[in-house]
Amino acid sequence: MTHTTAQPGRLTDAATAGLTVTLTGVQPTGELHLGNYVGAIRPLADLAADPARDIYVFVADLHALNSCPDPGALRERSRRLAAALLACGLDRPNVHVYRQSRVPAVARMAALLSNVAAKGLLNRAHAYKASIAANVAAGRDLDHGVNMGLYSYPLLMAADILALDADEVPVGADQAQHLEIAVDLAQQFSRSYRPGVLREPRALIAQRTATLPGLDGRKMSKSYDNTITLMAEGNVMSNQIRRIVTDSSSPEQPKDPDTSTLIALLRAFADPRTVAAVEERYRAGGIGYGEVKSLLAKVIDTHVAPMRSRYHRLLTDPAELDARLAKGEQHARQRADRTLARTMAAMGL
Ligand code: TRP
Q: Tell me, what's the pLDDT at 211?
């Protein structure tokens, strides 16, 4: 039997420990809504239920800087997002929640990787190209309003992923290109320096694409202003649900459940028996939208209420939130520092 000698700086732990390291980041851009929860947070909580996974989830506060937010607002949003993540099923021993900015190795990794990244690669990134297209359309200078944070967004995201030595990254379609860039940079690093230093991540594509319709029936999104707020107190949520746009059919008329926003939302939260019963009454006729909205509000509230109270408790008890984050950040720092050391050594630093 032959043994390979361990080289200093080769990939360590995740593989040998048999754990899959899953990593994702969320930008602290504002109030979380049901679409964020169903599309991103809940699937991650489902992954976290698998004890063979070690999950790193972070508040992408460095990424948020490229839109130059007010410092107080950024700080507040970051805390809220961290509290929401912890409250929504991610407060578990195999999940490490951290703020990206508290793991210095990430930014240092981005600086190192910038020497491996071809400028042309970043020229092709969707967000940058969209800014250029908007400038062209408005007759402005191509790079008007584009800072280096926006331009090198994919580079920082690659650093997030590669520094934490992630095996898999759950991504939606909008982030697929960013993940490809991270893979590209890992491969480029292997060619320029040596293989076995940076792990190539793989995209984890959601089994069923969970896009939730918003108040107007289009995809629920902050940019369409059609969201249902996740953590609002009082009757904000039921008021929003009452505003969901429906057609003008009367309660007696038969309706198609498959084109109904209300049914789509119900499917995301109600148990299958409840959903089937309502769908049946849609087809037969004899159910009004008002009744469905009340049911929907009740079902969602039952699901969300425990998370909401945990969220508000975390926000009113800064010591507990800080303690949770300190733990996640310590874990993330340890892991990222190891990758950074390997990377620096491989580069001759
Ligand atoms: N760009 C992601 C988004 O806007 C957030 C993000 C930053 C991220 N770094 C990441 C996601 C690393 C996954 C992995 O949704």
A: 80
- Please give the residue that has the higher pLDDT: either 232 or 348: 348
97, 328 contact by CB (below 8 A): yes
Could you give the angle at which helices 318-347 and 104-113 cross, rounded to 10 degrees?
Answer: 30
pLDDT for 207? 57
pLDDT at res. 11:
46
215 Cα–ligand 1 center, Å: 26
Query: By the 8 A CB rule, do 233 and 31 touch?
Result: no
Helix, strand, coil tally for the chain in percent (to 5): 55, 10, 35
> Rounded mean pLDDT of 234-249?
92
What does the radius of gyration of the chain's CA atoms come to, in whole angstroms? 23
Residue 157 Cβ inside 6 Å of ligand 1? The answer reads yes
Q: Measured in angstroms, how far is the CA atom of residue 99 from the centroid of ligand 1?
A: 12
State if residue 240 touches ligand 1 by the CB under 6 angstroms criterion. no
Give me ligand 1 centre to Cα 96, in Å: 16
What tokens appear for 329 in the block? 């950040």
Query: What is the residue with the minimal CA distance to atom 15 of ligand 1?
Result: 26
| pLDDT for res 208 | 56
CA of 207 to the centre of ligand 1 (A): 19
- Per DSSP, the three-state class of 25 is strand
Ligand 1 lined by 177 (C-beta under 6 Å) = no
3-class DSSP state for residue 61? helix
Count Cβ neighbours within 10 Å for each residue of 118-150 and write b for 16 or more, e otherwise.
eeebbeebebbeebbeebeeeeeeeeeebeeeb
